[in-house]
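Thread title: Can someone regenerate the structure for this chain?

I was given the following input by a collaborator and told the matching C-alpha cells would be attached. They weren't. Posting the sequence so someone can regenerate them.
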Amino acid sequence: MIKQKYFNPVAYLFVIILFPVIIFGQSGNNNIAAKENPNDDVSNSRNTIITRTVAKVSPVVVGINVTEIRQYRDMLSMDPFWRQWFGDRVYNQQVKSLGSGAIISPDGYILTNDHVAGNAVETIVTLTDGRQYNAKVIGSDQASDICLLKIDEKNLPYIKFGNSDDIMPGEWVIALGNPFGLFDVNDKPSVTVGVISATGMNIGASENRYYVNMIQTDASINLGNSGGPLVNAIGELIGMNTLIYTAQGSSGSVGVGFAIPINKVKKVVEELKANGKVDHDFGTGLSVLTVDENVAKTYKLKTSRGVIITQIEAKSPAQKAGLQVEDIIIGINDFRVNDESSIIGIMQEFRAGDVISVKILRDNEKLVKKMKVEKFK
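Best answer:
Regenerated them for you:
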C-alpha cells in the first residue's frame, strides 16, 4: 500500500522562521567580534594624510631669533630748525625680532625671509630637538624678500621642493612656523591647515620688496610665521609664508595670507649660493606713468589699468624692441601690469639677458614686442 505524504504547514513555518534567526544570529556574533576594538577604528580615522605629513615635515622647521642694529633720530633732529642748533643726532639701538625657517639641505642651508634675517647682526636658529646654532647669512635679496642662512651641521632632516607651477586652487596646504615666538615654548612648530585660495597674486610693494605672483591661502599665518614653509598634502615645499592682510586695528590673521612660490625661491637661492646676492643691474630705458581715469578717457581705453610710456632712452632695450612713447603696457609675459609699482615688481623677476614679451596697446590695437633686458649706458 502506498502511504500518502501530507503537507505539514506548521513544520515549514517553523523552518522558515528559525532559519533567518540562525543566520542573523551568526551575523550578529560576527559584528560583535568586529567591534570588540572600537578604539582601533577611531585611531585609524585620526591618522590622516595631513597628520602624517605634519609628522614628516615638522623636524625641518626652525625657529629664528634675530638681533638687528637700527638707527634712530631723536625728535629734535627730525626738525630742520632744531637740527641746525643741536645737530643731526642719530643713535644705534639693538632690536630683537623673530621668525621661522625651513632646512632645505642636509648640510644646513636654511630658507627664510629677507625681512626676518636679511639685516641681522646675530641670528640664532633653534631646531625641533632643542639644539641651537649661530647662523651665517649666505646672501639676502631685498627685492624678492628671500634670505639664505647656513648653520655648521651635517645629516640634518630637510624638506623636498615641490612645483609651485603645478598647484591648484582648493588644494589642501599646511603652514608651519613660529607664530608669536611659540616655538620657544616646546621647540615645536605650530601647524595650521587650509587651502590654496588663489595663485598669481600681485600684491604690490613694501619697503623696496616686491610681491609678485604670490600664493594666497586661508591657512592661518600670524606674526612670526614669516619664512616658514607652506607645504602640500604630501609634504612638498610649495611656498614660503611671507605676509598677511589684517583687519583695521588688528595684527592677527583674518584668513588672507600670502606665500612666495617655491619655483621663484629656488631660482633666487641658486644665485645667493653662487654669488651671495641677486644681480638686478639691468635696465629697459623706459619711463612710465600709471594709467588713471584721465589717461584712459584721453586714449579711449576700456579700463584704467596699465602704464603709459612717457619717455624712451636712445639705444636702450625699449627702443631696440620697437616700443614708442604713448604705448600702453598692459602685460609682460604672463604677468598683468596694473600700475607703476606692479611693472617695477615684475621686472625684478628677470635677469640681464632675458628676452621678455611686452604686451601693449597702440591706437587701441593689441601688439606684442620682444625686448631683451640688458645692461646699457
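The chain has three domains: 59-150, 164-275, 286-372.
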